[in-house]
Write a sequence for this structure.
């Protein structure tokens, strides 16, 4: 039986948008493909553990991100080298911003990111800024097709030349509400504003991340379950139709 | 009052009566919406014209319950009360309550009345600025409908900014001392502050909720190692500096509950024991807030206890109906901590396995984002379930949540009547059924249950 180690970064602080659901989805899918997974946690001050196969990071309030950013910098080069070796990452919302180059909280305050993604995020770009809130549907890279979620962010993210968007907007706002991009993808690292949580609502993305980790560790992909999962499909199909009908 | 305002007011009063006549239970905020549109300064008018005390109640969880409980205590002591006590807590609901208190000539029916208002967190600061209440009650801050409010820190900062003004030096603040997120507000409040809280070591080792608010002390340290009652509420203390919870003047201790009643003492006095209807630690806080305010209003403890013993059911909050010899109890669930508290409360009813109908909607009033169901500890209820019916607009998402939480046996039925029929038919004779409902689901299910059980609509009480 294949076994994977999943590392959840700062679960006690970056826990704002129910991203715990992503862990549940990984556990659920791993069981279906007969892979055992072991969840590890990294807290502020901890050493970076060895033998990690997949990294997850969620979002928090601005204040929480400030507390995390200084600690995360310590692990930046380690994470970067793992990503270059095709380690899969899912960085959601605040985690996505900190995996970019920088997050500007205000005129005076800029949080340094670890630069996995060539992008910068800026809070409150002008006085009349609004939050981007609502259901979102994107057409995602890597043949993932329609990916659904819920976005809730005041920051705008702008991608540089060294990174691809995770997807293009069909409904919703995405990175900045202007260029119709959503998230970022670099090797197998995905940054996104989609919570909802994203993995239960898009089981194909859950399998994609698991399979990236399996390929990297064991050399080949595993076969995905062939039978329909009615409960999973119902929630996904309802979501797609609901968002498209809005 | 000038002539135009008078005409608009009398029209609104007429409209309100018309609506009451035609719309059962619904539409309590509509006349207020009408007036708000035409008289933008009506809140200032309330402040200027109203002679009695104004009490304003806010916080994420428990507003409606605390408001109703306090209204019951105060009015049973002979003081007429004006209140928006059907959960209509935006400006228009407040104005509707005010209209209620006027006669058809726009004058107060009773001059010696007290106004007790529940106010939505997002408009609390602006409402207090206009109404200048004599008492402000802050219950708690939890993550709620993030899609509506943004981040809870935004609300906290907004409150802090408003309530640190010297403008409130003649206002009295009643605050939950166990909530760290309210502590800076109480410390910088310029008027008098009364603290309430729980002092019960038997609750301190409760299972910690999975998702709790992160609290940082002003010295930069995370406040997390302390005895918690639930969520982030408890006897908080910074491990570095001397910042810590203020000892409450009014506190609940010796808390016990069985399937029917909740019991606790006030300030460790056995002659101040209370036996109450609503279950759960969250209910202790709700009662405690109302009791603290009543004591401050110089209502004697015996009178408070007497009023609480005559407790009426509160709209959609643990309200009970009897249908086909089965007891159906409603729980409003609207955010993770609230749902966790309901789950914890149901788990203490160890008598039988549970029959549950859970309806998840995502209308504006429910919060359009349903991801909060993943923040709640659904896993904690799975083993105690007998029958589960899943309903509501977002039933498919909820079914997936239960599946990932380890429960695979359930019925998904989006039709309201069918879903009720299912849970009633599945449940054994003489058994109890619990309905977990988001706000808009609660309104619909309650209306239907009133109809089939022969109960009375709320405002007729
Ligand atoms: Zn401190």
């Amino acid at each position: 039986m294949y076994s994977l180690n999943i590392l959840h970064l700062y679960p006690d602080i970056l826990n704002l948008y129910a991203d715990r659901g992503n862990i549940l989805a990984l556990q659920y899918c791993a069981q279906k493909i007969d892979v055992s997974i072991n969840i590890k946690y990294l807290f502020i001050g901890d050493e970076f553990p060895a033998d990690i196969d997949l990294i997850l990071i969620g979002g928090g309030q601005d204040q929480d991100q400030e507390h995390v950013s200084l600690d995360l910098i310590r692990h930046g080069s380690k994470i970067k080298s793992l990503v270059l070796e095709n380690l899969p990452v899912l960085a959601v919302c605040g985690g996505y911003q900190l995996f970019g180059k920088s997050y500007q909280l205000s005129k005076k305050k800029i949080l340094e990111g670890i630069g996995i993604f060539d992008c910068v995020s800026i809070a409150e770009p002008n006085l009349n800024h609004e939050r981007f809130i609502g259901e979102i549907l994107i057409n995602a890279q890597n043949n993932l097709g329609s990916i659904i979620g819920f976005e809730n962010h005041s920051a705008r993210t702008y991608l540089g030349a060294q990174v691809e968007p995770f997807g293009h907007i069909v409904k919703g706002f995405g990175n900045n509400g202007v260029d119709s991009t959503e998230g970022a993808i670099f090797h197998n690292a995905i940054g996104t504003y989609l919570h909802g949580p994203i993995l239960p609502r898009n089981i194909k993305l859950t399998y994609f991340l698991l399979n990236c980790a399996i390929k990297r560790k064991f050399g080949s992909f595993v076969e995905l379950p062939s039978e329909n999962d009615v409960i999973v499909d119902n929630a996904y199909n309802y979501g797609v139709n609901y968002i498209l009908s809005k | 009052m000038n002539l135009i305002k008078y005409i608009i007011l009398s029209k609104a009063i007429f409209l309100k009566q018309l609506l009451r006549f035609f719309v059962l239970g619904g539409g309590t905020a509509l006349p207020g919406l009408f007036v708000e549109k035409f008289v933008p300064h009506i809140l200032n008018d309330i402040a200027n014209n109203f002679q009695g005390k104004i009490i304003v109640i806010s916080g994420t969880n428990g507003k409606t319950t605390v408001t109703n409980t306090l209204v019951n205590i105060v009015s049973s002591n002979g003081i007429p009360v004006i209140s928006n006590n059907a959960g209509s807590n935006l400006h228009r609901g407040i104005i509707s309550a005010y209209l209620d208190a006027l006669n058809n000539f726009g004058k107060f029916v009773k001059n010696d009345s007290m106004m007790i208002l529940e106010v939505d967190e997002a408009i609390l600061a602006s409402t207090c600025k206009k109404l200048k209440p004599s008492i402000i009650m802050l219950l708690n801050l939890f993550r709620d409908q993030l899609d509506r409010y943004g981040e809870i820190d935004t609300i906290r900062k907004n409150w802090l900014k408003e309530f640190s003004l010297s403008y409130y030096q003649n206002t009295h603040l009643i605050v939950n001392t166990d909530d760290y997120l309210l502590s800076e507000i109480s410390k910088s409040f310029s008027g008098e502050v009364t603290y309430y809280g729980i002092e019960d070591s038997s609750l301190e080792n409760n299972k910690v909720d999975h998702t709790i608010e992160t609290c940082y002390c002003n010295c930069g340290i995370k406040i997390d190692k302390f005895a918690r009652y639930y969520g982030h509420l408890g006897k908080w203390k910074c491990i570095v500096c001397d910042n810590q919870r203020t000892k409450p003047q009014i506190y609940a201790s010796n808390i016990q509950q069985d399937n029917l009643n909740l019991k606790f003492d006030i300030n460790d006095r056995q002659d101040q024991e209370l036996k109450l209807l609503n279950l759960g630690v969250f209910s202790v806080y709700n009662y405690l807030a109302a009791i603290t305010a009543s004591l401050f209003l110089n209502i004697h403890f015996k009178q408070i206890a007497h009023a609480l013993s005559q407790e009426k059911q509160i709209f959609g909050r643990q309200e009970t109906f009897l249908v086909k010899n089965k007891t159906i109890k409603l729980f409003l669930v609207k955010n993770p901590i609230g749902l966790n508290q309901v789950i914890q409360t149901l788990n203490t009813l160890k008598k039988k396995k549970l029959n549950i109908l859970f309806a998840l909607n995502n209308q504006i009033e429910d919060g359009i984002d349903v991801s909060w169901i993943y923040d709640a500890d659904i896993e904690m209820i799975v083993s105690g379930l007998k029958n589960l019916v899943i309903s509501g607009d977002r039933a498919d998402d909820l079914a997936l949540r239960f599946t990932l939480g380890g429960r695979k046996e359930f019925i998904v039925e989006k039709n309201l009547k069918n879903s009720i029929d299912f849970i009633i038919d599945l449940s054994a004779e003489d058994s109890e059924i619990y309905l977990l409902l988001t706000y808009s689901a609660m309104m619909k299910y309650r209306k239907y249950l009133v109809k089939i059980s022969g109960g009375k609509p709320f405002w007729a009480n």
